[in-house]
């Protein structure tokens, strides 16, 4: 199977780098990997997300994995350090397993920073914002290379930001490249604004899967919604907190003032210790070794 490095690097963006990589928890054989895959509990139909503020309608062409199973995928199978911000679960195309070639997943988180005003939606110059983001990435990457770590390049928009003012949903994609790695990586972002915070959906994949993810995005957007009383329209200025940032900050990562997973994607990658990056390469090679090539022969769970 091809390397999972693209998935692994982007998964890093979804978890805090404060934790250390639990190498002792990594599977050491094909049997252990298959045991972890078999333990995953795939779910469909209507599911209330943890916290009760939102629900997801899972169609037959997708599967949902709850928080514990999402942790198994991101930490035990993909080798990410456990994060402080726990996932609400993840979506994976039906018939796929997390170690299949071409596998991509959509992780779900919630950031309770308050009501995000969208009055700057028509004022944002995304080209100018991208240039600023590129400069910030280059500066951070140069410092990282001086410390002996691989550099990161923000290549550009894989898909420019788009905000739907009717559904209050924002989505965009970034094309990233790790120095000396042939494949580009894709970070496809979806933000759903609610009364008290933002639902965060991130697709983890290779750039070559952009077309597939874009095709599925309308369905993903319709699958996840806030429950009554938690919708954007339910905001009450008398009692509800207003977030200190707007839409532009959601894209640029301005909410990274907090030490959570919402930091800029390159800050997560560049701040990661070298051990973690090396471990990603090791895990990618590990799956290739124990499955001997075509992971599509792996029994579906």
What features would you describe in this structure?
The protein has 301 residues and is of the alpha+beta class. The chain has one domain (5-297). It is 32% helix and 23% strand. A hairpin with a 5-residue loop joins strand 1 and strand 2 (54-58). Helix 4 (126-146) runs parallel beside helix 7. The longest helix has 21 residues, at 126-146. The chain is globular. The two termini are 18 Å apart. Residues 1-24, 254-290 and 293-301 have low confidence and may be disordered.
Which structural class do the helices and strands define? alpha+beta
Overall mean pLDDT stands at: 75
- Shape call: globular
What count of domains describes the coordinates? 1
Q: What is the gyration radius calculated from CA atoms?
A: 19 Å
Termini gap: 18 Å
Spatial ordering of strands, largest sheet = 3-4-5-9-8-7-6
Largest sheet: 7 strands, antiparallel
Contiguous helical run count:
8
Strand content: 15-25%
Low-confidence stretches: 1-24, 254-290, 293-301
H/E element string? HHEEEHEEHEEEEHEHHH
* Total beta-strand segments: 10
Helix proportion? 25-40%
Give descriptors for this structure.
301 residues; alpha+beta; 7-stranded antiparallel β-sheet; 3-stranded antiparallel β-sheet; 8 helices; 23% strand; globular; disordered N terminus; disordered C terminus
């Amino acid at each position: 199977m091809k390397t999972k490095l693209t998935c692994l690097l982007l998964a890093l963006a979804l978890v805090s780098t404060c934790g250390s990589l639990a190498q002792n928890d990594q599977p050491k054989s094909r049997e252990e990997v298959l045991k972890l895959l078999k333990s995953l509990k795939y779910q469909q139909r209507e599911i209330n997300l943890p916290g009760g503020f939102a629900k997801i309608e899972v169609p037959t062409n997708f599967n949902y994995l709850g928080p514990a199973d999402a942790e198994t995928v991101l930490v035990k199978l993909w080798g990410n350090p456990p994060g402080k911000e726990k996932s609400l679960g993840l979506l994976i195309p039906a018939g796929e397993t997390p170690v299949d070639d071409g596998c991509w997943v959509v992780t779900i988180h919630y950031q309770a920073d308050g009501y995000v005003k969208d009055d700057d939606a028509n004022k944002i110059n995304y080209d100018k914002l991208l240039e600023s983001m590129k400069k910030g990435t280059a500066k951070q990457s140069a410092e990282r290379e001086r410390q002996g770590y691989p550099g990161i390049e923000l290549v550009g928009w894989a898909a420019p930001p788009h905000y739907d003012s009717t559904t209050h949903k924002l989505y965009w994609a970034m094309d990233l490249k790790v120095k000396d790695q042939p494949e580009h990586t894709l970070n496809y972002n979806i933000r759903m604004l609610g009364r008290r915070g933002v639902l965060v959906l991130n697709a983890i994949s290779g750039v070559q899967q952009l077309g597939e993810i874009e095709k599925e995005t309308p369905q993903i957007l319709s699958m996840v919604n806030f429950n009554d009383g938690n919708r954007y329209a339910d905001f009450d200025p008398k009692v509800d907190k207003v977030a200190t940032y707007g839409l532009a900050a959601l894209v640029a990562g301005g909410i990274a003032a907090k030490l959570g997973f919402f930091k800029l994607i390159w800050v997560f990658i560049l701040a990661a210790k070298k051990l973690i990056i090396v471990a990603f390469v090791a895990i990618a090679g590990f799956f290739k070794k124990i499955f001997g090539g075509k992971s599509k022969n792996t029994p579906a769970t």
